[in-house]
Amino acid sequence: AVRAPAWPGLSAPCLCRRERVRAMFYHAYEHYLESAFPYDELRPLTCDGQDTWGSFSLTLIDALDTLLILGNVSEFQRVVNVLQEGVDFDIDVNASVFETNIRVVGGLLSAHLLSRKAGLEVEAGWPCSGPLLRMAEEAARKLLPAFQTPTGMPYGTVNLLHGVNPGETPVTCTAGIGTFIVEFATLSHLTGDPVFEDVARKALKALWKNRSDIGLVGNHIDVITAKWVAQDAGIGAGVDSYFEYLVKGAILLQDKELMSMFLEYNKAIKNYTKFDDWYLWVQMYKGTVSMPVFQSLEAYWPGLQSLIGDVDNAMRTFLNYYTVWKQFGGLPEFYNIPQGYTVDKREGYPLRPELIESAMYLYRATRDPTLLELGRDAVESIEKISKVDCGFATV
C-alpha cells in the first residue's frame, strides 16, 4: 500500500486506528484478488469467488475509489487497465437495474471524478472524457430499456443483451425506482446526453404522483399500472434510498423541487412513523402501525437528517441505533423495538455501512466525540466478530 500523508491535528490513537482500517481494507482486497478474481465477490469462508450481480468483477469496480482515497494510485491504474480489458457489458445476463446503477455506474463515475485529484494523468477534455466515463455510459445504456414503461418507472431486472425479458414481473420496490438521479444526472452532465437524467426524473415524479393522501409511499408498486402491491410505509428496506437520493440529488444539482419533495415526505414520516425517536412501519393510507421494528438499513436516516440541518433529531435517533449496535456488536437486520431484541431469522449482520456513514455525516456537522467512539467500536467489533482468514464474513 502507498501510505497517504498524515493528517495534521490527528492524535496518535486516531492515526493508529486509521492504519488499522487501511490494513482491514487490504486484508479483504488482497484475498479477493488471490482467491476470487475475476468473479464479482469473494466468499471469505471457502476462499473462492462467485458472480452475484452480473459478472462484472464487481469488487474491483467497488474498490476503485477506495484505492484512490487510500493513496494507492499505482494499483488504481493497474485495475483500470484490467477492467478495460476484461469487463464486457454486452452479455446475456439478467441484471438488477438498481444494483447495476449504484455499484457499477456509480463506482465507475466516482473513480473517474476522483482520478485527477489523485494525481493521475487524464485525457484532454476530462472530466467529459475518459475510459471510466465511457464504461459507465455503456453500462447505463444497458439499463435504459427498463424505463420504457407507461409510467416511466423501471422494471427491476433487465437482460443486458436483449432488454427486458417478456415474462419480467412489473412489480418493483420503491427504492429500485427512485435511486438513479445521482448517477444518471452526473452521466448526463458529463456526456451531454440528457436521456439519463430525463428517465431518472420521470421515475421520481411518478412515485411522487402516486403517494397516498397522507403523503406516504409503500414498499412495492406495479410499474405498468402504478398500483401499490405492498403498502407498508417506512424509511427502511425497499424504500430507503428513494429518500436518500431526493436529498443527495437536490444537493448535487442544487434542485429545489427535489428538496421540496423530500421535505413534504419528511413531514408525513414524522407525523405517522416516528415514535420516541424511532421510526416504525405503518400502513401507507391509514398511518396505522404495521411493524414496530427497526431495520439496519434505516441507519442511514440520521446522516440524511444531518444533511438537511436537522441535527438534534438526527443525533437522538442515532443514539437509539447506537445502543442496538452496542447491545450486539453490530446491527441485526430487524430489531423489535418494544421487545428490545432481534427478530427471529433476521438476526444477521451482513457488514452494512449505514450506521457508520451516519456517524461520519453527524461528526462532520457536530464534532461530537461520541461519534468517533462509534467508529472505534465498529473497527473493534468488525475485526473481532467477522474477520476470517480470507476476508470478512457476514455474522
TrEMBL record:
First-level EC class: hydrolase
Keyword Hydrolase: yes
Endoplasmic reticulum is among the record's keywords: yes
InterPro entries listed in its UniProt record: 6hp_glycosidase-like_sf (IPR012341), EDEM1/2/3 (IPR044674), Glyco_hydro_47 (IPR001382), Seven-hairpin_glycosidases (IPR036026)
Family: Belongs to the glycosyl hydrolase 47 family.
Pfam families listed in its UniProt record: Glyco_hydro_47
Protein name: alpha-1,2-Mannosidase
Active site residues according to the UniProt entry: 99 (proton donor), 240, 333 (proton donor), 354
Subcellular location: Endoplasmic reticulum
Major location category of this protein: endoplasmic reticulum
EC number(s) recorded for this UniProt protein: 3.2.1.-
A Gene Ontology biological process term: positive regulation of retrograde protein transport, ER to cytosol
MF GO annotations: calcium ion binding; mannosyl-oligosaccharide 1,2-alpha-mannosidase activity
Function recorded in the entry: Involved in the endoplasmic reticulum-associated degradation (ERAD) pathway that targets misfolded glycoproteins for degradation in an N-glycan-dependent manner. May initiate ERAD by promoting the first mannose trimming step of ERAD substrates, from Man9GlcNAc2 to Man8GlcNAc2. Seems to recognize and bind to exposed hydrophobic regions in target proteins.
Cellular component terms (Gene Ontology): endoplasmic reticulum quality control compartment; membrane
Keywords (A to Z) from UniProt: Endoplasmic reticulum, Glycoprotein, Glycosidase, Hydrolase, Unfolded protein response
Gene: Edem2
